[in-house]
Amino acid sequence: MSAKRNLIRSGTTVDQMVRAISDRIVTGFLRPGEKLDEASLAARFDVSRTPIREALSRLSAMGLVERRPNRGATVAVMTQEHLASMFESMAELEAICARFSAERMTAGERRTLEAEHQASARFVQLGAEEEYELFNTGFHTRLYRGAHSKHIYELTVMTRSRLAPFRRAQFMLPGRLAQSWQEHDAIVTAIMRGDSTAAGTAAKDHVSIVSEASAVFAIGDRAKGKAEPFPTSAS
Amino acid sequence: MSAKRNLIRSGTTVDQMVRAISDRIVTGFLRPGEKLDEASLAARFDVSRTPIREALSRLSAMGLVERRPNRGATVAVMTQEHLASMFESMAELEAICARFSAERMTAGERRTLEAEHQASARFVQLGAEEEYELFNTGFHTRLYRGAHSKHIYELTVMTRSRLAPFRRAQFMLPGRLAQSWQEHDAIVTAIMRGDSTAAGTAAKDHVSIVSEASAVFAIGDRAKGKAEPFPTSAS
DNA sequence: GCCGGAGCAATTGCATACACTTTTTGCCTC
DNA sequence: GAGGCAAAAAGTGTATGCAATTGCTCCGGC
Question: Considering only CB atoms, which chain A residues are within 8 Å of B149?
Answer without folding.
Answer: 85, 88-89
